[in-house]
Amino acid sequence: MTVIYKLLAGVLAMSSTAGIAQTMKYPAAHTVDQTDDYFGSKVHDPYRWMEDVDSADVKTWVDAQNTLTQSFLADVPARDKIHARLMELNNFERFTAPNVASNRYFFRRNSGLQNQSPLYWQQGAAGEAKLLLDPNTLAQDGTVALDSISVSDDGKLMAYALAEAGSDVQKVRIKVVETGQDLPDLVDWMKFSGVSWKKDLSGFFYSSFGIPKNDSERAEFLKRAAVFHKLYFHKLGTPQSDDKVVFENPTDKEMLIGGGVSEDGRWLFLSQSKGHNNALAVRDVTKPDAPTIQIAPVDDARYEPVDTLGHEVWLMTNKDAPNGKIVKVDLEHPEPANWTTIIAEGPHSMDGVSSVNDMLIVSYLVDAKSEVELHTLTGKLDRKLALPGIGVAVVHGGKRTDTETFFTFTNYTTPPTVYRLDMKTFKSSVWKQPKLVFDPAQYETMQVFAPSKDGTKVPLFITYKKGTKLDGTAPTILYGYGGFNISLGPAYSSSRLGWMEMGGIYAEAILRGGGEYGEKWHAAGTKLQKQNVFDDFIGCAEYLIKNSYTSPKKLAINGGSNGGLLVGAVELQRPELFGAVLAQVGVMDMLRFDKFTIGYAWKSDYGAPSENEAEFQAIYKYSPLHNIKTGTHYPPTFITTADHDDRVFPAHSFKFAAAMQAAAAPTPGAAPVLIRVETRAGHGGGMPLSKQLDVTADMYAFLVKELGMK
């Protein structure tokens, strides 16, 4: 049970880059006289006008940039072949693990090239699958996505959340499973939340920043900083305007609020978070006016409920345990001094815990690869789960009384396969397995450890097709993220497979700032230590070059969101090291990231540039927008964003592209700087498959041209 909502990748005609750049004329981007004062430092922001993303000037500039980008890519004959092959590689049946409620199984199935995966249900493990909801029918262009579902304990009602055009804002409806009909209830503007049913099915809990009053407020809501998150209760059969605020923090507008009901229906867990840590309280919802019991009153660590039994609560926490531990709390004596350690901190990062059949299923990351252990509720190790191979396993949990659970296994050459785990015999069997459209035996993966600037050993996965020449000539994509306690690891992608079919190497760096080695690894890549992340990535690039996997002119770097910041910062610090840059939905203006949407929540990782002078000085040294120098030969750069990105505001990419182009224009032989702006799309979540493949094909076509691929 998880109730802490976390916020928190042919033939060609080749022209010389220099020749292209010297004749390239970028769309005009005027500048304004805008200067800000940060602790006495005067910082110019000439493209501030681009923050008004709905203005006529910005729309004209975006249209012109898209026209330029597509005309540039039209010069790559291989582009259509790349797109066609990506279609073929994605055209296979795939499934998600099921949610099970009262012997009803709910899962998603994509026949191959459907933009969104339809939702099915069946009665019993061997029942006939019935279509319950097809998001593809909700928008002609496939831009309405099914984000999440929450099924009532009796399996009769399902709350489902829809997101349009990639927005983080969700619309919730209730469906009667047996008939497929929707109830009249509608909850709009849910954000950074899921739905948690009350046990008596009288209604459900959800979180929101409130409802805009008019069209003007709605447009502003998608770009301004969202503040004063609240937990609401919606009573079935009533309008949303009657929903009651259950929990809030009126003294701190930046606190994110989450809530969820325990399996037995007795306890409502209440979470307050800024970034990764959270405070945690609980309330007995079976008793009117029950007091709030503080479990962890301060957001000084992560506290995640796992299970309850009577007045006892099992928690996963990293309080005084950077790698994580499990404790038991007696709610009649909830003070930390009375907590009992059930599973102590170990040498590896605890990645997830669920409670099934009176056992604790604990997932660990060992050098970014999964290991799974089964413990009794008292913490005794019973056995280790045998996994199908080396990769990432995600256990989907269930209820403490369930006798089965499911886990999904994947690695770089294994599409996600769903396994059923019998909790009585502890035997696992394939539940749903994709039919492969390629031969995984043709590919190989190795893990190495690259030295960073300070000597830290950075895990690096390298995957390629057998027979690829490792003589420094192979075009290579080095991917990274390095932030927000997010863990990377071996995971399948049809697009990456397409790259390797083209003769490319795919390398994935496990950087500090992530969660692969626990909180110490994460903290070492945050705030004043953020440069470590860039040094780690540079160290991985140097390893690939030194060991003849690739060469600077053949090495492309790629990252999205916080990873977009990564590649933007690194290309400015070591431009000679790379042959191309793919920067997707990046955080590029590091002095104003907290002014838009949910950016203030990122201060836990980045620091507060307008509030803390030391953090400002650290950020200012690497902020991509503020470290571009005219006259420097930067690698060819391809920037992507979306006009409806309400996570990382698109002005980040707009301003960075304009500044990079302005620096390139007067520089003889400068490489191209292009930006691609997707319409009716957001940060990436819920993007229809057709748009995903369009973006990937364009990026690969750019690399074909700029890396000189044949």
Strand order of the largest sheet: 32-33-35-34-36-37-38-39
Shape: globular
Q: Residue ranges: pLDDT <50 for 5 or more in a row?
A: 1-22
Helix share of residues? Answer: 10-25%
Q: What amount of the residues lies in strands?
A: 25-35%
Radius of gyration, rounded?
25 Å
How many E-type strands? Answer: 39
The CATH superfamily of the domain at 17-88 and 438-706 bears the name Alpha/Beta hydrolase fold, catalytic domain
Q: Class by helix and strand content?
A: alpha+beta
The largest pleated sheet is described as:
8 strands, mixed
CATH fold label of the domain at 17-88 and 438-706: Rossmann fold
Defining key terms:
disordered N terminus; Rossmann fold; five-stranded antiparallel β-sheet; 710 residues; eight-stranded mixed β-sheet; 12 helices; alpha+beta
Characterise this structure:
There is one protein chain. With 710 residues, the chain is of the alpha+beta class. The chain has a domain at 17-88 and 438-706: Alpha/Beta hydrolase fold, catalytic domain (Rossmann fold, 3-Layer(aba) Sandwich). It is built from twelve helices and 39 strands. The strands form nine sheets. The chain has an eight-stranded mixed β-sheet with strand order 32-33-35-34-36-37-38-39, with helices on both faces. Strands 3, 4, 5, 6 and 7 form a five-stranded antiparallel β-sheet that branches. It has a four-stranded antiparallel β-sheet with strand order 8-9-10-11, with no helix packed on it. Helix 3 (78-90) packs across helix 5 (494-501), helix 3 crosses helix 12 and helix 7 (531-546) packs across helix 8. It is globular and about 75 Å long.
